[in-house]
Amino acid sequence: MKIILTIFITFIFLFSCSDNGSITEQELSADFFSAPLSGEITISAYDSMLYRAFLEEAARTFEALHPALRVNIETFSAMPEVRRADQGNMQLMAIQAENDPASRSDYLSRVNTNIMSGRGADIYAMDILPLHKFTENNVFLNLEHLMEVDPSFNRGDYRENIIDSLYYKDGIWFLPLDYSFNYFAYDTTLFSEDIASNFGSDRQYSMDELLDIAIPLFDGTNKLFNLTDLGRGQSMWSFLLRSHFDSFVDLENSRANFSDGNFASLLNRVRSYGEMGIINRAVTGQQNAEAIMQQGIITATDRNFYKLNGHVNLLFQFTRGMGPIARLATTGSAPSIESDDQIAGIEALSNGIVPFSFNQAFAINSRGDNIAAAWAFLSFLLSREMQLSASMFNIGLGLPLHNEARYEKTELDMMSMLSFTGASSLNAQQRQALENYRAAVEMLSDSINGFVIQDISLNDMIREEVQQFINAARSAEEVARILQNRANLFLSE
Known about the structure:
Layout: H1 30-34, E1 39-45, H2 48-65, E2 69-75, E3 81-87, E4 90-96, H3 101-116, E5 123-125, H4 131-136, H5 144-149, H6 160-164, E6 175-176, E7 178-179, E8 182-187, H7 193-196, E9 204-205, H8 207-214, H9 236-248, E10 249-250, E11 255-256, H10 262-276, H11 289-299, E12 306-310, H12 312-318, E13 341-347, E14 355-356, E15 361-364, H13 371-381, H14 384-387, E16 399-400, H15 403-417, H16 428-445, E17 450-451, H17 456-470, H18 476-491
Parallel strand pairs: 1-2, 1-5, 9-13, 14-17
Antiparallel strand pairs: 3-4, 5-15, 6-15, 7-16, 8-12, 8-13, 10-11
Helix pairs in contact: 9-10, 10-18, 12-16, 15-16, 17-18
């Protein structure tokens, strides 16, 4: 994995829109939605692995429906390295994407240059683009009015609370095709009935709230979470940082607040959890596969008070005891005993927001030459047909935003997991498990009410400086001071 210092770029737009990124009623004539589509549009994405196959499939299908239109696909990142190894009677596969801040910065610079020169793409994937910077400069089209007046678009076909959560600066600037969420499970053998009565699929908890409940119960025997402390990727540090991020960075108003003591305190707190044995300490060293495997063997017999799971784990929970299933190992968590786990609630941030994430989402360039075709193609990507595409979900495991597609995909997922049995349909027990899984997905999804605005360059900066703390090269206070200076400079550009 390459570790390269982030190259910061300045988003300086040499022109401004005459409006606020919205289409006027005059421009939305009857022909806007009904005229034959022609010419060409270009879709640009950084992430090749998640986007290319799906977009190419969608482009060819859409071109067949509109022969006078050409759809071009551009992706930038290198495809990840796939490694396979035999382990007993199992085959292990690891997909290692290159963590290359310089490559991401190059892409952002290219997008910025193309937009300034009038050669920008018609549609942009929202994989690494900074929403706050592009909305400031009216680069993206406000999609709210289009959704309201397009006779073929019905918001009721989709998860409306997720669409509502996209509002930012008086508009909706992109639309996701899918969504994901995290939820907490708890081990029923480690909590009293009185405490457990406060858990359930209709509840929301921040990680701090659950720690406050369980720390008084900790006796040194069982870990509180199935996470490591300060490791790369999905560690307790990464989730607590996300939970408190709005107290450190205000992207909308370009302000940083790393130096008031809270950031350093959070870093030191997470390290103390590892030192005290409340959670496992991360294996350090690059690609230390043997140590990581050994840790997995040790933790497989552990019990955790809580587990932080992605929504895909829900299906595993509801199919326990149904014989051999195809089990996908999710990243970021150590294996441990889960036979007594139940749902504690969906993950919330420290400010009470219940966020979602996405695998694929798109925005339209407000200065594009073929906005009608761009909107038609984005609407097509949101259709039931495309949301059930195998290409869309061959890597990503998000839930379709489209309600019917999501309902159908849950059964497809279960059939895929039961593929080892050779069954061609679900029996009564499996059908009931499917209905229970669907009900849990929808109940947990009902709580989603927000979206976390990110800036990949700032995230890279934080990750780089925190690594100095992990390596014991700097104290938490030194890291916070340096981050404050670097963030101030970055946000002022």
